[in-house]
Amino acid sequence: MIDLQHIFKWVPVGGARNFLLRDLSLQIGEGEFVSIMGPSGSGKTTLLNVIGMLDHFDEGEYKFLHEEVHKMKEKQRTQLYKQYIGFVFQAYHLIDELTVYENIETPLLYQDVKGSERKALVADMLDRFNIVGKKDLFPNQLSGGQQQLVGIARALIAKPKLILADEPTGNLNSKQGEEIMNIFSELNQQGVTIIQVTHSEKNAGYGSRIIELLDGRIVN
Length: 220
Description:
The chain has helices at about 45-50, 75-85, 100-110, 115-130, 145-155, 175-190, 200-205; strands at about 1-15, 15-30, 35, 60-65, 65-70, 85-90, 160-165, 195, 210-215, 215-220. By secondary structure, it is an alpha/beta fold. A six-stranded mixed sheet has the order 6-7-8-3-9-10, with helices on both faces. Strand 4 and strand 5 form a beta hairpin.
């Protein structure tokens, strides 16, 4: 599903290059559940953003479902990730001006899902995450944990083939965190590919493979 070959990403600092990813090659098959670990600043979120096509890279090749991402124009990449990828961000990235209901519905609008079907799918997600009572509230009226649940519901609603999760349980209590990891496990058993960045050994253990990063390189 994912094939990264010799990926380099850097930022120029005072005439030199500060490498965020350095000669990184990685293959992830469809249906895998992969956990990415490593200290802060090791390149975990950068790698996730490159896989999710939110970040460019400077050298290397990237194939997603046999499509050559490195040769695509911005618009083609955007279409590809909206069709196949669901993101769970550490910082939520909810749209402040939209209600909980509207935030969760947003990915379906990109996919031209009919109104009645959208309504049913959103209702299902609100129910699944016990946030029916919050549907008319705005993000700033929610706790951090509630915002995270809304972000996860939004990521899952369009039934993506690939879920990219950056510290998905970082703002949840232990019970909520466990529920989310169990949902990820269920989805993975149904064939959804999951890549999560985590500091938690326990959460990493839900994956079938752990990738350790250090200074932008894979070390295991």
